[in-house]
Amino acid sequence: MTTLAPYPIGTPGVPWGSAEVATWLAKQTRHRSYEKDVLSVVDSLRSRYDVVEYGRLDYSPETYPLMAIKSRQWRDELPYVLVTGGVHGYETSGVHGALRFAEQHASTYEGRINLIVAPCVSPWAYERIHRWNPHALDPNRSFRKDSPARESAALMRLVEDFRESVMMHIDLHETTDSDESEFRPALAARDGVAFEPDEVPDGFYLVDDSENPQPAFQQAVIAAVAKVTHIAPADCNGQIIGSTVVAPGVIEYSMRKLGLCAGITEARYTTTTEVYPDSPRTSPEQCIAAQVAAVCAAIDFVLAETANS
């Protein structure tokens, strides 16, 4: 029997207080540049799209402008499509998948959709390759009224005026080995509960909304991504990360009850992507390509449904 070492911050069984959060924060190190990796790409798109600053995070000594890319030919009668990435900053292909889609594919849909891309919702965490913000809060459990996470609150303000008009929202994520080695143990320690190890799925999968399942939409995305990288199989219990697999590569969560990003609008079609960059069967480049394929397939499905309605 293997005995797991306790997380190095806090007392087992006791939730963190401000002292433990401060200790955790002091250990966080900046590894990469939001300005270089994200803002420079967004700036390069200004000649083709409208670029808006929808908020600003003041995490002294750093300040982070929150940027979104929008269709220039905006028409109210067109389908509204929302693409988000980097809600968890460490999930790299979500950020770069959103940016690459905007760079290389978004123009294909010009005049057919109203597009909003928020490529890096959590820039502080992007730079530190972390899941949380500086207050040890998970933005992707914080999309709710009076959110304590500034990243989540800012994105909700961005979509407030058109949240009822959004037809599709795709939120780009990853599941990594560090989920098991660092982030889930840290979460258990923060909340004062026992850490229970789980299996990291090897491959791409989707999270549908259990309150509004759209199986045909999910399978259209899975079919497109399967041409780029492998789809995660169910484990021996017929599950992925503890949730029942309802169709190949698809599980369901209650988006709004859990405060997930994909639940912030009234969109009929919603999904959260998850790709596994640590797999020996894929590469970082394939993971980005898989995210792009997912976005394109999701939009194509919506346009086909609109044409047929």
Automatic annotation (TrEMBL):
Cofactor(s) needed: Zn(2+)
**Alphabetized PROSITE patterns for the sequence:** PEPTIDASE_M14
List, for all copies, the residue spans of the domain called Peptidase M14. 30-306
Active site as annotated: 274 (proton donor/acceptor)
Domain of life assignment = Bacteria
Keywords in UniProt for this one? Answer: Hydrolase, Metal-binding, Zinc
**Family per similarity comment:** Belongs to the peptidase M14 family.
Protein name (Swiss-Prot/TrEMBL): Peptidase
State the organism of origin.
Dyella acidisoli
